[in-house]
Request: fold
Amino acid sequence: MLRNFLKKRQTRFGLILIGLFLAAGFLGPHLCPWQPDAVDEAHLLAPPSRGHWMGTDQLGRDVLSRLMAGARISLVIGFVVVLIATAVGVFIGATAGYFGGALDAVLMRFVDVALCFPVTFLILSVIAVLEPSVTNIILILGLTGWMGQARLVRAEVLSLKNREFVLLARSYGASHGRIILRHLVPNAAGPVIVAAVFGVAAAILAEAGLSFLGLGIQPPTPSWGNMLADARSTLGVAWWQSLFPGTAIFAILIALNALGESARASLIHDPSTPFGRSGRRPLGEKGAPR
Amino acid sequence: MTMIVFLAKKIGQMVPVLLGITVISFFVIHLAPGRPSDALTELNPKVSLEVRERLEKIYGLDKPLGQQFRDWSVRMVRLDFGSSFTDGRPVLAKILQTLPVTLLINLASLALILGIGIPLGALCAVKKGTWIDRSVSTTLFLFFAIPTFWLALLLMDWVGVKLGALPVFGIKSIDHAYLGGPEKVLDVARHLVLPVTVSAVAGLAGISRYVHQNMVQTLQQPFILACRSRALPEHLVIYRHALRNALLPVITIVGLSLPGLISGSVIFESIFAIPGTGRLFFASVMARDYPVIMALLVLGAVLTLLGNFLADVGYALADPRIRYPKNAA
Amino acid sequence: MKEILRVENLCVQLPLADGMLAVARDVSFSLFEGEILCCVGESGCGKTTTALALTGLLPEHSHVSFDRLVFDGEPARDARACTRWRGRGIANIFQEATAHLDPLFCVGAEVRETLTRTRGLEARAARDEARRLLERVGLRPAEDFERFYPHQLSGGMNQRVLVALALACAPRVLIADEPTTGLDQGLRRETAGLIRELAREEGWAVLWITHDVGLAEEIADRAVVMYAGRIVEEGRAEAVFKRPLHPYTQALLACRPGKESTGRLPSIPGEVPNFRALPSGCAFHPRCARRLEICDKDIPKTFCQPNGQRVRCYLLQNA
Reply:
């Protein structure tokens, strides 16, 4: 299944694009002559030119270098958030599903309650209460995104926990933790990975949105979201200020969604598509047809 | 009889969740470092300690947390959300004032989403593999990925400023009060075109894809083969049999989008300067106006609960397998 | 008796993810009015595919070819022309009846729909006729049964609904694809009896597909045995079942739990071949106790016996 996944065109497209962003985010700043904060007073709000490939904003800062710094921040936030969400979600889901009973009931009620809050409202409320620092943003996004994974894992664990291989493991004395980690969780890996990929996309979008509203990454640290916010005031005149960060967000979301789609197609067994359209070669003919 | 039992069970399940919602909302707000009264007095260094303490007494901020929660819960049940910190008006009134606009936009958006998304999804499923399917799917994929706030900015720039075709701010023109009756309606409608479009784009892609998946699966079911074997006309097979089955889960989706009717619009309401609930929420967050924040949080959660409930009920009504459990026949 | 359907050298290929797979080859048979032809064979030998091909009900991109396909005197130009025969010409009933009924339609509505759309009846006439049909298949009182949904009825009852739907089409041919498989013994007899009775009353030509040789023996007028996508034996029922000529048919019949069986049930050694890697020559030869040198070279032609039985086996070559 993994090989199938890696061979698909969609996967490769997504991975290449993400790779580009990673390179831009981590290598770019070293290659770029401008610092994200550096002000070039001779070129305020200048269109793209040889000196500034993507132009400058109204404070004279180079857009390209800010874009690359923003890439690093967005990608880091996206991945760490999903790591946290997945870890918490898998833990809670597996525990609830495996031990069942009152623990399951309480945990799932908690998940239900957590899911009741409109995500935007919840995130904004918490940000209102705490100060918007990178750590807080990561924590909040992570702690509001684990519910989906919890339910997925719980469902898998529930369906698998009475199978023979689990009973077998118990019979030779494997501890609960070992059973959960080595036997049950890996079986849920497919849907969890798919959800995680889409989760990165959601996290990056959420961070961009927060930064856009001014409640995310605070200026002067560049984030694609707050770059777009800066561009609001120069909307009609400086097309480069909003086009590049906007396209960057768009592109990375496309890449992640493509990756998620092809992961979903290849990692989740779908019995409803046995027929395909590739090739019309006859199979299995040995004797003469007549 | 079973329907009533079903409903009662569902309502019973909602109670602990409701309780959880109130507890969590309350404590989310009280995580705040610093005190809510800071918001009122921060900018005014001349305010003395006594004034501060008097404010705290008025808002009950000096009582122990447990008691605050009890008082707050009791008042909530009476729908008394207190008064806003920013302008002293009753919170409920402020919310109700902004609700109609947001509801209007989001309902129009929902109508668009369902009206276009469902047929598109069904079309793609029926024409699976053809260029229609591929091109529509790709376009929808792009719609799904585009960040709404960027799309809003782009549309504002091109359609609003460059083409001058549609207004970009607010819901009324400056001279709205002087317009005739039907012209007033038209004016508001023109102002709403861009926000509704932006709001609908992402939802459109989501619904369409969902319907597409369900349709594809439904079309492979044995009963569709059986219908075809009886020479039923193809349009009947697709719309009367396949689509109805495929749309059942969509009821759940519609129910789940109920809370989105008030909460989904924070970003584009602030971009288009729409005086709606989303913008109210945003402004309250910026101003640390806790009563309003709490009220909207609770309202959002309750709506979600209600939405889930309505979705379950709707599904049960539509699916005979749930309405009539296995029978003695 | 009148020949209603004639099939000559039908070949079916199904589209798989990595190419086209031939699952039925050179299938030839005829259906006669008022007669039940049983198609017998193990699961996966191509019986259902053949049946679906007759009315174009195979998945998209399947490939169907034939030398001749004639329905009620009308030859079909190509596979697509066969879709015209659905319903009024050829009706189908299926295994797993409940899955073949729309869960959102009560059974009465489903029958009425076929009556109005396929038979063209008016609404009121359809309603009355639907009730009559439901009673005819044994679902009485019809006023009660017509309001039930498929999930509320048992498998056996749903199968009767499928039969009622077939009746509603007023066809010349009925293709019954394992309609009683999965029902318990008593129910199986009842349902089989019902279908046979209706077939006689309506004068249907029936193609009854089953892997249950015992059942076939009871109801068949003529029989056809399939193996690995080809017909290996064909003839009148008592000839095929009492004096089988093809080694596979003989082995199949030997496997039946009979009244005198003692000890273990005999089974055919070897495995059902995979369509992707069929043996050369006769597909059965690796499992055949009486195979000849020639059996793995070329596929045997069909050899006709004096009594009309036809067998695809080199053992009969000189007869």
Observations:
- Chain A touches chain B through 44 residues (CB under 8 Å).
- The longest helix of chain A spans residues 63-99.
- Chain A has one domain: 2-31+61-267.
